[in-house]
Prior knowledge:
The protein is of the alpha/beta class and 358 residues long. 40% of the residues lie in helices and 19% in strands. The strands form three sheets. Strands 8-7-6-5-4-3-10-9 form an eight-stranded parallel β-sheet. The longest helix is centred in the middle third of the chain and has 18 residues, at 154-171.
Amino acid sequence: MQDASMLRPNQRTRQVMVGDVPVGGGAPVAVQSMLNAPAQDVEANLAQIQALAEAGCEIVRMAIPRRNCLDAFEAVCAASPLPVVADVHFDAQIAIEAARRGAAKLRINPGNIGGWEPTDLVIEEARKAGIPIRIGVNAGSLDDALKQRTDLTLPQKLAKSATDYVAHFQERGFNDVVVSAKAHDVMTTVQTYRILSQEIPQVPLHIGVTEAGTLFQGLVKSASGLGILLEEGIGDTMRISLTDDPTEEIRACWALLAALDLRRRNVELVSCPTCGRCQVDLIALAKEVERRTANLAKPLMIAVMVCVVNGPGEAADADLGVACGNGSGAIFAHGAIIRKVQQSDIVDVLLEEIGKLQ
């Protein structure tokens, strides 16, 4: 039996099921995103779910902003290949109805759900449906009493909001709980999750930097904050929030997990930063390889290198790669050259060779 003191934080949490996806208890960090199609457009949401699933999404969240969106939510749940989480603010009755209509999990916000009485009604409906609840705290929507306290830092306020709700849920005998407590500031987010990991070590944590920004800034902020937490073993499920196409969030999640050697699903591209020795348009070449392998569900390392002499050696651990010279390229596998091709054929041949690998 493994010594509990040797376990990382995300190996000690209680496991909950979101549809058929395990979260916590040492399960692999689950990857999720959120739909941004109009809430009443069933077909648009299902199309987006399909694209997310192909990119590697495992859990998807859908906002239900109004009660008249519940019929669409129910239809999406019925046809979705992924478990669908109902994202609810302000109206507990929407959460109750979502539980009845196929939600795989509910997400409620302590800062705006309306207090303990409506929360208790949501708990009972989730209990009947056999689904978990995410207590989702945000820095921008703390309840007024907690917000005005001057004796606590912002991370402490966020953590207290979450832990108070967890305690209430436990008093009511409801333990299928996941917690998130997010801020747009990276270190506020990191400090909050560190507190939560200490104070409620049994509760699975959904990690993310909220409102992280557009693609470039959002990736930098999210990778910084989530990278710290994941390396410390904190986080059972994750979302990288971007003001962009949701599939970019999924690509980013997998890239981060792979970089930390936690999970691998897609191609990892190793490529030179270019220099004065470059004799091809390596930037365009690398981007084309990246584009054409973006949704390829093969955990391979592919190298696009600038130098025929040093390329295979520098990327000897790559499953496959190309080292480019003047008008040609040497295709190599694990450092050994297997083919030489013309520059115009490099991408096609590289993809052909990738197709041969399992």
